[in-house]
Structure formats: structure tokens, C-alpha cells
User: Fold this.
Amino acid sequence: MKAAPASLDASPTARPTTPAAALARLMEGNDRWVSGALQHPDRDPNRRQFVAQEQKPFAAILSCIDSRVPPELLFDTGLGDLYVMRTGGEAIDPVVTGSAEYGPMTSGTPLIMVLGHQRCGAVKAAHESLRDGKPLPGNLQAIVKALQPAYEQAAKQGGADPVETMARAQAKLTATDLRSNQDLAPLVGKGALAVVGAYYSLDTGKVEVLTGAPS
Assistant:
């Protein structure tokens, strides 16, 4: 995993260099995904050769392991465009946090998005475990522990569907944690990085920005 020098900016598709431009690129791609007007950018042999030696993605996405939520597809992106991390319910630990930090701290990636989603199985399982006081087997319990703050926030907030409330809370809380950590906070403070919490609808294919959108 090697970061690229500044010369890689001269890519066939110009790389967004600001948080606002990076978010706009993602949302434009999501609009194409929703409408079916996909461009499939950065996926041809020329692009493969262009990024074969070095990379400089314009965004990092932390999403769920859910098979229905592949970031490269739902943002209509290609090779070398995104750093992608996927964990159950966007649960984080020091390794995941370090992975999220990699792009911004080594190659100037201007955007991190934490992407929760509708009908998240990991969130549902964690919610039921915490509600009923029944730990999950094996290392699944580590996911439950990581999602407990979102469960507690959702319980306070209330609402008709506590699992969906918890899924949204998890995306927002994780984005806040990353935005305020000691290594990323200085980049956020000077406007070089935005950390966005977002939510994906399985029904519509649309991504909704929940928190942290750059101005």
C-alpha cells in the first residue's frame, strides 16, 4: 500500500483536491447509481496501468461488510479512486482507525465518509444483544461492544424504528470520533479534510449526508 507523489494528480480524470469537491464527486456518482446512468469511470486498461505503481485516492470510505453496500459501485467510481474499509456496522478499533488515517496523513486524501445503511444486520444483532442482555458468540461480541454507544444514543432518542435510529447514530458517532481524534483533527481544523457521516438506502440507492458536510 504505497501513497503517490503529487505528480499523480495529472490523472485521466482530475482528482478532487478539496473536501467539498471530493464529496461532490461522490454524490454525483451516487446520483448516477440511483438513475442507472452509470459511467463506470477509471476502470479501463489505461487506468489500471496508470495506478499500477502508485495511488492517490480522493476519498476514504468506512462502510459495513453488507454485500449490498459496495462503495465503488454505489458511488460509480473505479481503480485508484477510493480507500475502502468495511467492518460489521462500521465498528472501529485502532487498526481500522489507522486505516482511515492512512490516506489523509500520507497522500492528502481530503475526505473520509462513514457510511451506515438501511436494514443493517450487524446493527440489528447488536441492538437485540444489548436490549436482551444476551452476548453474541465469539468475536461477534466485539462488534456489539463497539456499537454500544450508538445503542445508548438511539435509546435516548427514541423513534418508531430503534434499529434504523441506531444505524444512523453509529455513522454519526463514528464520524465524530474520527473527526476529533488527535491525528485527524488538525487536518479538519485547517480545512484540508472533512469527515462525513452518511446513510445509504437499500430501497432507493440514495446516499444521505448526515453530518460533517464541508461548506
